[in-house]
Amino acid sequence: MTDKVALLTGAAQGIGQATALRLAKEGVSRFLLVDRNANGLNETADKLGKSGAKVRTLATDLADLDTWRTKLDDEIKTLRSVDILVNAAGSTARGGIGDTEPQTFDLLYALNVRAPFFLMQAVMPAMPRGGVVVNICSMLAYGGPPFLLAYSSSKAALVALTKGTANAVKREGVHVFGINLGWTWTPGEQETQTMVHGLAENWRETVGVTQPFGRLLMPQDPAGLIAFLTSPDAAMMTGSIIDLDQFVAGTVDDNPGAA
Fold first, then answer.
1. 3 state DSSP class of 71
2. Rounded CA separation 194/10 (Å)
3. Structural contact between residues 76 and 82, judged by C-beta atoms closer than 8 angstroms
4. What is the DSSP string of 79-97?
């Protein structure tokens, strides 16, 4: 992975930050980090800098395509090539069939579908053979609770976008993957569960012990899978949508008391 260039969105915290640190550990030496949180980007950049990596940052709101598209094109021209794109940015805004406002619906699709589409479009001309794209999807792409209907539909769209893009660029030697992520603790999820759903600050531990493997997923879990998908060990794969979860989609839990 030495001398590889990685572009990561959502890199200010959580999965994006954990993935950047893991890729640096694997030898990736140049990064372009994208997030709307400038302070968080600087924190991630500082951590990467300690490993000797060269880091560029772009603080922008990916929901506003007109604002970031030209800036990103300029950054890619500076980098000249991009070997890895990880689309980890997204929104988990709540909304069901009866209460989702158009603004919320548009935000979910802007961040979870439109941004990954145009990020891939921007990167493809600069991505060499062997390049890898990883999109963070969700287990809720199979269907989810009523209050996450708009969100789950956006992630289902991202799954279709991922497979279609993999098919479109396979002859150029570019690999495209999706990760259907299960319930994962992140700083953003911590805020959502405490501020929106009223759970206690220690909900990660109390809920975690009810899970089949005894804990929630952590950002390092998808980061490790991404390290594999961007390595030579996955050189003969593309278009795969991988369920990273401790529950099995389409089955029924035999423990009625399980969460």
1. helix
2. 21
3. yes
4. H---SEEEE---------T
Place of tokens 């479009």: 121
> 136 forms bridges with which residues in the sheet?
179
C-alpha angle 204-62-174 in degrees, rounded to nearest 5:
90
Considering only CA atoms, which of 131, 138, 97 is closest in space to residue 243? 138
What are the residues whose beta carbons fall under 8 Å from the beta carbon of 216, sequence distance 6 or more?
Answer: 183, 184, 185, 204, 207, 208
Contact predicate 88/16, CB 8 Å: yes
Distance of alpha carbon 156 from alpha carbon 229, whole angstroms: 21
- What is the rounded CA–CA span in Å between residue 123 and residue 84? 9
Which of 33, 31, 26, 106 lies closest to 63, judged by CA?
A: 106
Residue 198 region by backbone torsions, left for phi larger than 0, else alpha for psi between -120 and 50, else beta: left
Taken as a whole, the chain contains a residue count of: 259
Q: For residues 135-159, give the mean pLDDT.
A: 97
- Structure confidence by residue, pLDDT tens digits, 206-247: 999 999 999 999 999 999 999 999 999 999 999 999 999 999
Question: Is the model's pLDDT at 259 over the cut of 60?
Answer: no
Average pLDDT, integer, range 43-69: 96
H or E segment and range at residue 33: strand 30-35
Paired tokens of 216: 């929630």
User: Rounded to an integer, what distance in angstroms lies between the CA atom of residue 219 and that of residue 10?
Assistant: 12
User: ∠ CA 151-157-163 to the nearest 5 degrees?
Assistant: 140
Q: Say what the pTM is.
A: 0.95
